[in-house]
Specification:
The chain has 13 helices and eleven strands. It starts with 8 loop residues before the first helix and ends in a 28-residue tail after the last helix. The protein folds into three domains: 100 residues, Orthogonal Bundle (Arc Repressor Mutant, subunit A); 143 residues, 2-Layer Sandwich (Endonuclease, Chain A), CATH 3.30.870; 55 residues, Arc Repressor Mutant, subunit A, CATH 1.10.10. The longest helix has 33 residues. The strands form two sheets. The protein has an eight-stranded mixed β-sheet with strand order 4-10-9-8-5-6-7-11, with helices on both faces. A three-stranded antiparallel β-sheet has the order 1-3-2. It is elongated, with a radius of gyration of 29 Å. The protein is α+β, with helices and mostly antiparallel strands. α11 packs across α12.
Amino acid sequence: MLDIIGLSEIDVDVYDAFAGTGSMTVAEIRQRTGVPHQRLLRVLRLLTGKGLLTKLPGPAEAYSAVRPEIALEAMLRQKEQELASARLVADRLRERYRATSGQRPVDLIEVIHGNALIADRTDQLLRSAEQEVAFVDKPPYARTPSVLHPAERDLLGRGVRFRGVYERSALELHDLSSDLEAGLALGEEARVVTSAPLKMIVIDQRIGLVPLRSDLPEVDTALVIHPCALLDALSAVFTFLWQKGLPLYLPGSAEQADVAPSDDARLLALLTTGLPDRSIAKQLGMSYRTFQRRLRDLMTALGATTRFQAGLQVATRGWVTLPATRPPREEGVTEGADSPSPRP
């Protein structure tokens, strides 16, 4: 915790050992902390240099501690001043870049090569979000999705909105419980489409990330899009796909109405996505034959002889969430006029 002021865990332990003591020799400190002698000498020099310890005069090498409200407060105030100065520099640089943005078209697009660099840049961009992260998820990937991205977990906890459009093929690659359900349980809003033209991330409608190509087995080159007409187009594509997609609510998600039997809720949610039966069985961790039996039992319980009838019964009972019906367009209103602008 105190590494921000240059103190390691061992440094803190040695300093803490002085609590309730007047002074201690090196031998006494070593006996109390168990830190090896040479390492302890380095720690004592560090703590003395930072003003946390005072070396006492005399033949025996002894030290006494400076009270934390004196020593630590001074160090923290200095660090706060350094951070304030760094923020001023960052603000000045941001204003300079903002003032010159658009003057050179080449500055509006960054090209990133390599899976590791793309993953790092993605994490950096995600953690800069303040209001909303909108994304379209489809293969290929820089890293195969297996667990919820740590940045998403942190940002959802801070109240940042996450809206995701998943291409149906992407659902076959995600881990249901550790990835999709985890995000939905924390408040992610998700919809599913049969196909999407490209994958993307748009953050606060101010910066976007797209792969250069989508016909390769993995992402090895990506583009970071700064404010320009291309970013507006990405936002418009996302808005179109979001309006077109079917809501995905899995058990435990923030908006899932817990009205279906718990054993069937996940099965129903996956059936609404249009995934192939074998893919659904795999996500549920069961054999294909077990899946077929579960589905037959569910249809029998619903009094349905076809999947269409089962779908009507499920919708009637409110076991799945249907997309809101859009009102008919008035004459003279152009297509897309009722869609929100992708940028304020």
